[in-house]
Amino acid sequence: MRKPVVGVIGNAHRVENRFQVQMVGERNLRAVAEVSGGLPVMFAGSPDITDIAALLDTVDGIILTGARANVHPTRFNVDPCEKHEPYDIHRDEVALALSVACVSRGIPLFGICRGLQEMNVAFGGSLHPEIREIPGRMNHRMPRLENGEIHPDPTVVFADRHDVDLTPGGAFARILGCEKIRVNSLHGQGILDPGKRVLIEGVAEDGTIEAIRIAEAPTFALGVQWHAEYDPQHNPVNRKLFEAFGEALLARQKAAA
Question: In which pathway does it act (predicted)?
Answer without folding.
Answer: Amine and polyamine degradation; putrescine degradation; 4-aminobutanoate from putrescine: step 4/4
